[in-house]
Amino acid sequence: MVQMSKRSVVETKRLIDVASGRRAADYYIANGRIVNVYSGEVIEGNVAISGERIAYVGPSDTMVDSGTMVVDVGGDYLIPGFFDPHAHADLLFNPASFSDQVVVTGTTAVFADNHDLANSLGLKGLRRVLRDSKSYPLKFFTGVPAVSPPFPGLEGEDFYPLRDLCGLLEGEAALAISEITPFVRLVRGDRRLLSKITLARNVGKRVEGHTVGASYDKLNAIIDGGITSCHESIKPEDVLNRVRLGLYVMLRHGSIRSDLQSLSKTLKECQGMSSNRVMLATDGVFAEDFISHGYMDYLVSEAIKYGIEPIEAIRMVTLNPAAYFGLDWDLGGIAPSRFADISVVKDLRRPTPRLVIERGRIVAREGELTVDPSPLPAIGLGDRPFTLGKIDESLFRVSSRRKGKLRVPMIHIVDKTVTERRDIQLTVREGAIQADPSRDVLKIILIQRDGKRKGCGFLSGFGERIGGIASSIAHDTHNLMIIGGDDRDMATALDRVIRIKGGIVLVRGGRIIHELPLPIGGIMSPLPMRELAREVEKLKRVFRDFGCLLEDPIWTMGFLSFTSIVELRITPSGVYDVKRGKVIF
User: What residues does 412 pair with on adjacent strands?
Assistant: First the structure.
């Protein structure tokens, strides 16, 4: 499928000579217990590395001489580098800090969906990040966005038309089309979207699905449309239905949802089902959760806890993702000719490595990076600057010709990502509908970065003591979202977000209480992950002081504009009913 790396005859000859004992290896890992994901065994042996690749696996030491670096692991396990098949490297942190942090936990390859980054920075910014990613201490693969925004017209113009998509798909790092969140467009046979998917499939790329809530019949139509995987199973039967219909399935266990305990039952109860089309994926881990738990090493330990055999769990984060993306001759196992991506661990049930080798070089030891830090993405908003012009209270006026009371459909927050419709009577005063913080009813406004379109609505379930909150995180096109009960505070918050080139700002009583700058695309911080985790925890405490009792107010706020989750969402066109497919306010 994808030819990740072209090899010269010289390199191939060198590997053969090392394996045959005619040439010295660069590294020789001795006395390891090798986890063989191909045969399902643990085999005592040694691994010889030449350049970036493994030349030999077995008992021989004929390729060792005085110039060979011998690493005696004393009976520890050697496991292939982990591969996250659906990551997000732009969740407040940036891809460089993310890569430097996750590699020390044994992850040597990621497929980063990247549609948030791509939408916030634009085409040129995305290309710069992909160029820089070649110097990261892991293999940084990317998805190419095809639904940015999910519903063009309703949410603005198409950021990545077919001509731009074509150029991006030519890149070696681009393995797939990013997740197709508006699967209803596939069911309807949307020709513009089908053209993009057909282009990707015809050049051998995968197409990531996002099929939460799809019935069995709709799944058939969606798969006909070209998707190749889904990471959105919620229940065991979701896994089984998707496998039955030929999809690759990713069992998600990350910060947005952690479903592995339930989903792992499918593998135990369906005896005839092979797990070769099943993977483990994070779908994004927030900085604070990473610091507390880890990354793919944590997923493996959780899978084992829920009854999946250790080698099977490791196969689901190594060989299976590599095979899915067509990279299994380069990645996924400890075998000749593969890249030398190897972690040394003491315990398979908690495989946090003491040593990480990536492309034949030691990149981490005892949880610390041993290579130079990755270059940070450039500070700035790329192709999507803020150009709103004057900001004052009038920007947040919700006009109405009615007088007295007006019944309004309101967005009510149910949980971290789900909303529902509630109708409420609100007061119209001097031609404007009023918020009512005393009843936990706030305004919510979404403004395009260029100021050309603005959607208004009302919101409950967020916190009654909020004056004004502004954020440049608004999944997944990242326009400017403002929530509050006081127009002056909302204006102050928005003005500050624009001045700091993106971020989250909380205001009460005309005073800025707290801010988190996100000057890379308006959604990412330049801070290392540990520092960012501390800043996020501070921000959450301030949200609680504002009366917001949500588990994770940052991401709940960010998802209020995500039009692929039921029921009501805010868009630049107004309040959108996802089920009915129409703007209702």
Answer: 420, 460
Same-domain status, 505 and 411: yes
CATH of the domain at 211: 3.20.20.140
| Helix then strand then coil, % of the chain, to nearest 5 | 30, 30, 45
Nearest C-alpha neighbor of 491 from the set 517, 512, 476:
512
Q: Which residues pair with 447 in a beta bridge?
A: 454, 480
C-beta separation of 561 from 571 below 8 A: yes
Please report whether residue 97 resides in a domain.
yes
- Helix and strand numbers (H, E) in the chain are 17, 29
Domain boundary (315, 330, 345) is at: 330
Q: Could you tell me if 428 and 536 lie in one domain?
A: yes
Which residue reads 């610091």 in tokens? 291
Count the domains in the chain: 3
Q: Do 185 and 63 share a domain, yes or no? A: no
Radius of gyration of the chain (CA): 25
Q: Quickly state the pLDDT bin for 54 (edges 50, 70, 90).
A: very high
End-to-end CA distance of the chain: 47
**How far apart are alpha carbons 242 and 251 in whole angstroms?**
12
Residue 475 has pLDDT above 60, yes or no: yes
User: Cα separation of 329 and 322, whole Å?
Assistant: 8
What count of Cα atoms within 13 Å lies in the side-chain half-sphere of residue 522? 33
Quick one: CA torsion of 477, 479, 485, 487, rounded to 10 degrees? -170
Longest dimension (CA), the chain: 91
Q: Are residues 129 and 198 in the same domain?
A: yes
pLDDT at 1 over 60: no
- From 275, 306, 330, give the residue that closes a domain: 330
Q: Are residues 122 and 259 in the same domain?
A: yes
**Structural domain containing residue 98:** 82-330
> Strand runs (DSSP E) across 188-241, as ranges?
206-209, 229-230
Task: Give the model confidence (pLDDT) of 344-396 as tens digits.
Answer: 999 999 999 999 999 999 999 999 999 999 999 999 999 999 999 899 999 99
486 and 350 together in one domain: no
In a domain, 382, yes or no: no
What's the pLDDT tens digit per position in 414-427?
Answer: 988 899 999 999 99
User: HEC string of 443-482?
Assistant: EEEEECCCCCCEEEEEEECCCCCCCEEEECCCCCCCCEEE
